[in-house]
Design goal:
This protein has about 190 residues and is of the alpha/beta class. The protein has a domain of about 130 residues: Rossmann fold. It is about 45% helix and about 15% strand. Strand 4, helix 5 and strand 5 form a beta-alpha-beta unit. Helix 6 runs antiparallel to helix 7.
Amino acid sequence: MVWNSKAKKKMAMEDGCGRRVAVFAGSFDPFTVGHFDLVKRAAGIFDSLIVLVAQNANKKNLFDAETRKAMIEVAVSEFPNVSVDVYGGLTVDFMKSVGAHYLLRGIRNSADLDAEQAVAWNNKVIYGDGDVETVLLLSAQEHLVVSSSLVRELLECGAGKSPAEQKRLISNYVPKNMVSMLLKEFRKKYEAI
């Protein structure tokens, strides 16, 4: 059998079973409808997608990593080829450990593009054999202003308000099947203060 460079590249970009495995990493504090839309679209592109809850010691998160993981598992439960994991090291190290060669990133604006381009080049160097591809998906127009920080701000503004009012504040910004769990986890944190 003769292998050309294109065939070698294709084989190299698959895991040992010939599947295209991608990782979508982020803090997801919390997971939003923008994140969900990217997962939904990527689930149709890749054989396996791992949503990776990244632990960053330099970042103060509202929810701990395991709580974020549990909320995301609820949000993405309709996709059989999507799983959720937690990792505290470099994303490319996690990718190596699971045989993933694609890193999914969402782009909302030109600032995101500039930042992701630099990270993509560094990931190629760090990965070793340069066999990691960053796949950029443009955010849907209706999600351009959605961010985890906006959801956190809305949660804080709704603290002390009725559950119905809290739900109204965030329901357009997080996956519907995750709203109740998110509010429950937020109330636990808020009441503990």
